[in-house]
Specification:
CATH architecture of the largest domain: Alpha-Beta Complex
CATH topology of the largest domain: Aminoglycoside 3'-phosphotransferase, Chain: A, domain 2
CATH class of the largest domain: Alpha Beta
Number of helices: 13
Number of strands: 13
Shape: globular
Strand order of the largest sheet: 3-4-5-7-6
Order of helices and strands: EEHEEEHEEHHHHHEEEEHEEHHHHH
Strand content: 5-15%
Radius of gyration: 21 Å
Length: about 400
């Protein structure tokens, strides 16, 4: 059952409201209505010691939720995010907030999550779940860039890689269990099992909305043909992958920077909405896939930024060198690391938005298309390059 299209009130249609980023560009119609001034004023009234709202300075163009940068009369800024309850409950957000708090306690630069007068960091109002973060230090250098586009500079990739290693080191002693099953998580429950078919069936059937969405496709045969052979190459290396809470969506626009020039460094890590208990190599593979392969180009012109991949890995391994088994796991995992999130995107576009274009992009273009690309010449070239890079390092 799809959600009702909530029309944005007239005062939400602001001239500075950006187009929404989508799977194939930008569009004027938004999946979720813009946050209004009245909504922010009601929300902030529940927090102690917050000044009245002065203005809404910016609406995020990114999908899956609505978010704004709100300025209060004391000159401070707050990042306000609103989720539909079918996507994130207060309990689901609390899982993220617990991880953020742990990382902050270990010195990782993350934004502060505010608690309201009742001590809640996630607040439910009707069909919506809200969270408020303090504006974090750093420049939002990639604010106007689609989420999975390349870094501006290889130096940014190096800093992102080193910061990702810092995050994994800070996460090492975080013992929370994996998150409850819910839409749009970066999950490793299926790929992390040696029994691909059995784990996939169990995971899908435990999520009825996902199962109903996938039953419109020949998904068992499609995944057995496309994903299973690549997964078989990963299985021998699974014992080397220690479970770890990870970011799950490591790309340039989820980071704040010292500036936008070559040599800029990461200042703050943002957006833990897809985080879960996976493993470090999973996060690295996602970072490569989402930053260094330009999937948003025309299918025949997908570009690989080899210098960015090398810089990202160099930055990561400057703090946390990968073992031989971990590096082999990275090569094996890269073609299929997106699998579970892509399946959950199918559910999102089908069961929640009723968007057939989105379903096709998620199932055919993303889930199957990315793995098939790795079986073709350019994808094979990238995997060979990764293996050659390791050999050169070993012989240096």
């Amino acid at each position: 059952m799809t959600h009702e299209k909530h029309a944005a009130p007239p005062d939400a249609a602001l001239p500075n409201a950006p187009l929404q980023f989508t799977v194939d560009g930008e569009k004027a119609e938004r999946d979720w209505p813009l946050i209004t001034r009245d909504e922010v004023e009601r929300l902030l009234a529940g927090y102690a010691d917050l000044a009245p709202l002065a203005k809404i300075a910016w609406h995020s163009p990114r999908p899956f939720s609505a978010a704004v940068l709100a300025h209060t009369l004391d000159g401070r800024a707050w990042f306000v995010k609103r989720h539909h309850a079918r996507l994130r409950s207060a309990a689901g957000l609390a899982e993220e907030h617990g991880f953020i708090a742990h990382l902050r306690s270990r010195g990782l630069p993350v934004a502060d999550v505010l608690a309201d007068r009742a001590g809640r960091t996630a607040i439910t109002h009707g069909d919506w779940t809200w969270e408020v973060h303090a504006s974090a230090p750093g420049m939002d250098a990639y604010r106007g860039v689609m989420s999975w586009k390349p870094f501006f500079h290889a130096s940014h990739a190096w800093s992102a890689g080193r910061t990702l290693a810092r995050l994994h080191q800070a996460s090492a002693d975080y013992a929370a269990p994996a998150r409850a099953l819910q839409p749009l998580l970066s999950s490793f429950r299926v790929l992390g099992s040696a029994d691909f078919g059995g784990a996939l069936e169990q995971w899908v059937q435990a999520q009825p909305a996902l199962a109903r969405s996938l039953d419109k496709h020949n998904w068992r045969a499609d995944l057995q043909e496309t994903i299973a052979p690549a997964h078989a190459r990963l299985v021998p290396f699974l014992p080397a992958l220690r479970p770890l809470w990870t970011h799950g969506d490591w790309h340039a626009s989820n980071l704040l920077w010292t500036d936008a020039t070559p040599g800029a460094q990461v200042r703050t890590v943002l957006d833990f909405g897809l985080s879960d208990r996976t493993c470090a190599v999973y996060d690295i593979a996602l970072a490569i896939e989402r930053n260094a392969i330009d999937w948003l180009a025309a299918p025949a012109n997908v570009t690989v930024h080899y210098d960015h991949i090398g810089a990202l890995l160099d930055g990561y391994e400057s703090l946390a060198p990968l073992s031989e088994a971990e590096y082999e796991a990275l090569i094996a995992l890269l073609p299929i690391v997106h699998t579970e999130f892509a399946l959950l995107e199918v559910e999102y576009f089908d069961a929640i938005l009723g968007d057939e274009t989105g379903v096709a992009a998620a199932y055919d273009g993303y889930l199957l298309g990315h793995t098939r690309w790795f079986a073709q010449d350019e994808g094979q070239r990238l995997l060979r390059w990764l293996r050659t890079r390791r050999s050169k390092e070993s012989n240096a």
